Amino acid sequence: MPRMNLKTVRAMQIRENFQEIYKESEKEEFERSLKKWYFWATHSQIQPIKEAACCFAD
Predict the structure, then answer these.
(1) 50 near 14, Cβ under 8 Å?
(2) pLDDT, tens digit, 9 for 90 and up, residues 2-54
(3) Rounded to an integer, what distance in angstroms lies between the CA atom of residue 15 and that of residue 28?
(4) Torsion angle of C-alpha atoms 52, 39, 56, 13, degrees rounded to 10
(5) What would the DSSP string read from start to end of the chain?
């Protein structure tokens, strides 16, 4: 059970970070933040997050 809670918290952090990307005012900053988020999401051990991140692949 504690391991499940840790994954839930990690998934929420990744989701919240994704939402913050849209607050960037410059295109370059947005793209940089999205690439950083994409790397983080695709290297997570949470399969649904990895699958969602694949929607943003180049």
Answers:
(1) no
(2) 666 888 899 999 999 999 999 999 999 999 999 999 999 999 999 999 999 99
(3) 21
(4) 50
(5) -HHHHHHHHHHHHHHHHHHHHTT--SHHHHHHHHHHHHHHHHTSS-HHHHHHHGGG--
| Residue spans per domain, the chain | 2-56
Q: Is the pTM of this model over 0.90?
A: no
User: 28 is written with which tokens?
Assistant: 């370059």
Q: What's the token pair of residue 52? A: 């969602």
Q: Sign of the C-alpha dihedral, residues 15, 36, 49, 47?
A: negative
Note the residue count of the chain. 58
pLDDT on residue 6: 87
Please check whether residue 23 is in contact with residue 16, taking contact to mean a CB–CB distance below 8 angstroms: no
